[in-house]
Design goal:
It is a single chain. By secondary structure, this protein is an alpha/beta fold. It has one domain: P-loop containing nucleotide triphosphate hydrolases (Rossmann fold). The protein is 50% helix and 20% strand. It contains five helices and six strands. A six-stranded mixed beta sheet has the order 2-3-1-4-5-6, with helices on both faces. The chain is elongated, with a radius of gyration of 22 Å. The protein starts with a strand and ends with a helix. It comes from Cyanoderma ruficeps.
Length: 202
């Protein structure tokens, strides 16, 4: 299973955006109501690049103000969707700070992250430009999407993109582990060869 955390601001409209993105991804429907104090968890199976993916999606936005709980889900997540509203500059500023919070807990920047600017259906109320979102994504070396949870624009791209990032990291770690095992095996063979050579000369 792949654990995905959606995280960011405690404002109710952003929490609804998280839930809406997940519900649109899983069941193609937009929620009428959501209690922002409730932590939501969703499980789903999808095929991405002709491979099955079992996703555990945890929406923790309502718990963001509780440091202990926030740190707990940051430690457990394999990937993160950091979402802000393009109509709310404060949410973008909080998004800019969130990757640092992940680093503080995980002690590495090598964490699969997708940055999402939501509400492109409200373009006339935009406060955060696309260029600003792209610039922040470059700074954090992560993928960037602008979406509409209400209209289901680019929602699949967000989740599929994050799964691809997680798989890419897993593949990279697997290659490193194989190289380490190969080096260890060569070292053992060398030690064995030296030991036999030493025994033959005595």
């Amino acid at each position: 299973d792949i654990d995905i955390n959606q995280a960011l601001c405690s404002q109710s409209e952003l929490i609804l955006a998280f839930v809406a993105m997940t519900m649109q991804f899983i069941s193609h429907r937009f929620p009428d109501y959501h209690d922002p104090t409730i932590e939501d968890a969703y499980k789903t199976q999808v095929r991405i690049d002709d491979e099955p993916a079992y996703l555990d999606i945890l929406d923790t936005a309502g718990q963001a103000e509780f440091t202990a709980m926030r740190d707990q889900y940051m430690r457990g997540g394999e990937g993160f969707i950091i979402c802000y509203s393009i109509t709310d500059r404060q949410s973008f500023q909080e998004a800019a700070e969130f990757k640092e919070l992940i680093y503080r807990v995980r002690h590495t920047y090598d964490i699969p992250v997708v940055l999402v600017g939501n509400k492109i259906d409200l373009e006339e109320f935009r406060q955060v430009s696309t260029e600003e979102g792209m610039s922040l994504a470059r700074e954090y070396s992560c993928s960037f999407f602008e979406t509409s949870a209400a209209l289901r624009f680019y929602i699949d791209d967000v989740f599929h993109g994050l799964v691809r990032e997680i798989r890419r990291k897993e593949s990279s770690l697997s290659m490193i582990e194989k190289k380490m095992k190969r080096k260890d095996s060569l070292w053992r063979k060398l030690k064995g060869s030296l030991k036999k050579k030493k025994e033959s000369t005595t």
